[in-house]
Amino acid sequence: MLNTIHDSGFKPAGRFSRRSYLAWNMLMGFFFLLIGCVIALMLPGINLDTLGSSLSSPVIILFIFLYGVAIYFSMVFTIRRLHDRNHSGWFSLLLLVPVVNILFALYLLFAPGDQQANQFGQPRTTRGWENVLAILYILVLILLFIATFMISGDSLPKL
């Protein structure tokens, strides 16, 4: 049984509720956005049209490393979410299959977790800051959806 008091979101062992899953993904997004802004400030005058040819090898290696870190934590969060549904973490590999990954991501977002203990431990209590970030994540997604239609010049879909 896992100790939920010292439960770290950075390890695949344990469970994530839907809100915890959204919150940790939002936290990761904030972190990488911050890193991206710092890198952009450190590399002024980069032309986006010739981005690949204008970056030095260490910067490219840094981007590859950061991308690997993002993929790793995304998989960790997905494994924890699968554990909440009492599924093996190996199902997280479905994220690598085109089209299936979209349906799988929707499943992870909408399927409720087990209310009782399962083979992966007791349900994890969603912390207050996780609730706030999860709500913020949903609001940002809605705003991005609306902005996409406004920028493309199309009107919003009629309900």
UniProtKB/TrEMBL annotation:
Transmembrane annotation, as ranges: 21-43, 55-78, 90-111, 131-151
Signal peptide: none
Keywords per UniProt: Membrane, Transmembrane, Transmembrane helix
Protein's name according to its UniProt entry: DUF805 domain-containing protein
InterPro entries linked: DUF805
GO cellular component, one term: plasma membrane
PANTHER family: BLR8105 PROTEIN, INNER MEMBRANE PROTEIN-RELATED-RELATED
Domain of life: Bacteria
